[in-house]
Amino acid sequence: MAGHNDFGKIAEDLAVDFLSKNGYTILVRNFRFQKAEIDIIAEKDNLLIVVEVKARSTDAFMLPQEAVTKTKIKSIVSAANHYLEEFNRNNEVRFDIISVLPDDKKKLIIEHITDAFEALDAN
């Protein structure tokens, strides 16, 4: 496995730990629909939370959350709609991004951006 894949897995594990410690129930990781993938689907306060985890080893070129493009949003929204249908869920859905980036001392910093985008942003 390539180094960036290892870092991505570490970032997802950190995101799961972060969410769990903050009262979220993790329902599924790496949910796939066609070519789309949702990193984490969680639940809190009767909301279904769809989480995209973005990690970068540096923010020299862009912040991790800036890598969530319109195309990626469309893909996430499509997969989320499929999840709702497949599991007969009718919860309100919120789309979050968790950004993981090392600080100057190489400590990984997590930034949780709630309500980062809406399904309408996919249009």
UniProtKB/TrEMBL annotation:
Gene3D superfamilies: 3.40.1350.10
Family: Belongs to the UPF0102 family.
HAMAP family in the cross-refs: UPF0102
Name by which UniProt lists this protein: UPF0102 protein JET18_12125
